[in-house]
Amino acid sequence: MNMTYPLKEQKQIDLVKMYLKSKSVRNYLMFTVGISSALRISDILQLKVSSIYDGKKPKEFIEVKEKKTGKRKRFATSPNLQRAIKDFAKVYKPEQEEYVFVSRKGDNKPITRQRAVQILTEALDMCGLAHINFGSHGMRKTFAYHCWKNGTDITFLMRILNHSSQKEVLHYISVEQEELDDIYVNLNL
């Protein structure tokens, strides 16, 4: 299995968001949920409209039962995620029991994990980011990397990601020696 990587620069995230939003608010929402929640792609694809939108407005909190761990996860929706949900609801006018990322095949089933990865890979390619192997964990890793970069205590990241060690988290988010070196340089006491 090839190692996947996060988008480490805000301008990369902004490019992908802009591209996806111009093509499909559904796909833009998928990306925004992923980089705003640390959910695995399998959990993102299982979201129903009722779990993110109450029929009038985005929910303040989203709750899911994680497929891999069986644990319940609850997270607050950021302003960016709430805007993406509003845009989605305005365009699609979805029913509460529909899957958010419903397949266009018309059978109220979510798109497949493979299709989701294909959408993300195409977006990165179109944004000149084909050199980044984003894969199915890229959104989750992007969330965790930017939390770490913005000073979130690594023990919270361990809990969010269900990882058992700090070393595992740092490896997962692809922290490289140059980034560790920057910590020393930027401290400059």
Describe the structure.
With about 190 residues, this protein is mostly helical. The protein has a single domain (about 1-189), classed as hpI Integrase, Chain A. It has ten helices and two strands. The protein has helices at about 10-25, 25-35, 40-45, 50, 80-90, 115-125, 140-150, 155-160, 165-170, 175-185; strands at about 60-65, 70-75. A two-stranded antiparallel sheet has the order 1-2.
From the alpha-carbon coordinates, what is the Rg to the nearest angstrom?
17 Å
Largest sheet: 2 strands, antiparallel
Determine the fraction of residues in helical runs and give it as a percent range: 40-55%
CATH class: Mainly Alpha
> Number of folding domains?
1
Tell me the strand order in the biggest sheet. Answer: 1-2
CATH architecture: Orthogonal Bundle
**Number of DSSP E strands:** 2
CATH topology tier name: hpI Integrase, Chain A
Shape annotation: globular
- Spell the H/E element sequence: HHHHEEHHHHHH
According to CATH, the homologous superfamily is Intergrase catalytic core
Give the uncertain stretches in residue-range form.
Answer: none
Relative strand content: 5-15%
Category from helices, strands and their pairing:
mainly alpha
Number of helices: 10
Keywords: DNA recombination
GO molecular function: DNA binding
Domain Tyr recombinase: 2-185
InterPro entries: DNA_brk_join_enz, Integrase-like_cat_sf, Integrase_catalytic, Tyrosine_recombinase_XerCD
